[in-house]
Amino acid sequence: MTSSFFPPQRTLMGPGPSDVSPRVLGAVSRPTIGHLDPLFVQLMDEIKGLLQYAFQTENELTIPVSAPGSAGMEACFVNLVSPGDTVIVCQNGVFGGRMKENVERCGGIAVMVEDAWGEPVSVDKTRAAFAEHPEATLLAFVHAETSTGVKSDAAALCALAKENNALSIVDTVTSLAGIELKVDAWGADAVYSGTQKCLSCIPGISPVTFSPAAVERIQNREHKVQSWFLDMQLVMGYWGANTKRAYHHTAPVNDLYALHESLVMLQEEGLENAHARHQRNHEALVAGLEAMGLSMAVAAEHRLPQLNAVNIPEGVDDAAVRTALLQDFNLEIGAGLGALAGKTWRIGLMGYASSPRNVVTCLTALEAVLSRQGATINVGAALPAAKALLTD
């Protein structure tokens, strides 16, 4: 007979999911109530307000999609892209490629702006793309590319879209709550994220926000949204403000308890403090890695503090190191993707996992495993370098 599943206690320092706070895990276990219960409707309104704080927006259409970040991505594209629309898509990693796939599945025409993996999106190349394609009505790009650990200039790219009378679709799956994100100030139009990264929540929910201009475009569509479940005009019947909530789907009630708790924790800490914590722990981790003799894959000015791409030393077995970390230390780090597979590790310091304790744990475990493999590293140098920054 199959028995109950009891997972081990891992330290999650990969590209996501990240460690979940005990407060959030506790919230999941609270009694389930109906998704149309007046108390749950009240909770929904609180979640919308807390998400507006996290996104730094006053957009009325700010909600959690009842599915992972990939569904949030699809929600933005299926609602804003109609057959024949020209969309400029910036790709500097895996997730820009997924944007292209969404455009094409919606019947749109994707004009690609490609940059090297490990480099930010080029604003100049994007400007040139608009000059060559004045018919483009949308710009899509990734703010924080999870596959490479690179941050792009979202403010400049959103401004460029506005200059060309286009709307912007922005992937903030890894950036929300980890680095500065100002939806209204930057003029972003359709923004999606995920709960399992810097929000330190359980996977399975995708916060999204749409500007008034994006909502107007949705309302003026000539073609039906190709997804019934993700059609914002239908979803707003359930999530809309000042309306009688209409049944659309059975919301994941307990998952939304978890999201609410994680957003309460973010509000308690404060966005600026959360950003500073991610940056401080990132700098300590980098100092330790470099003292050990490792190098970073991304230039300092473009690095994500919450997702650190590290070059794998020559002669080191990538998979063997990650397997040993998991088996011997219950520590998960991520492999490289696509063009960076076998070349980099991705070490996450996201949300609840962004802590001095995890910095020390990671450096200690990585040094032990690399030493065991015979890698050429500076044994004993990492922890002093990291702790010097953690104790300042």
Can you summarize the main beta sheet?
7 strands, mixed
The number of helical segments is 14
The H/E string reads EHHEHEHEHEEEHEHEEHHHHEHEEEHH
The beta-strand count equals 14
- Estimated helix fraction: 40-55%
How much is the radius of gyration in Å?
21 Å
Question: Architecture of the largest domain in CATH?
Answer: 3-Layer(aba) Sandwich
Features:
392 residues; alpha/beta; Aspartate Aminotransferase, domain 2; Aspartate Aminotransferase, domain 1; 3-stranded antiparallel sheet; 14 strands
How are the secondary structure elements laid out?
Layout lengths: L10 E2 L9 H7 L9 H18 L5 E5 L3 H12 L5 E6 L2 H12 L3 E6 L8 H10 L5 E5 L1 E2 L4 E2 L2 H10 L3 E5 L11 H4 L3 E3 L13 E5 L1 H8 L12 H8 L13 H17 L1 H22 L14 E5 L6 H12 L1 E2 L1 E2 L8 E5 L7 H18 L8 H9 L2
Parallel strand pairs: 1-12, 3-4, 3-5, 5-8, 8-9
Antiparallel strand pairs: 2-10, 6-7, 9-10, 11-14, 13-14
Helix pairs in contact: 1-10, 2-10, 11-13, 11-14, 12-13, 13-14
Describe this structure in words.
The protein is of the alpha/beta class and 392 residues long. The chain has 14 helices and 14 strands. It has a seven-stranded mixed β-sheet with strand order 2-10-9-8-5-3-4, sandwiched between helices. Strands 11-14-13 form a three-stranded antiparallel β-sheet, with helices on one face.
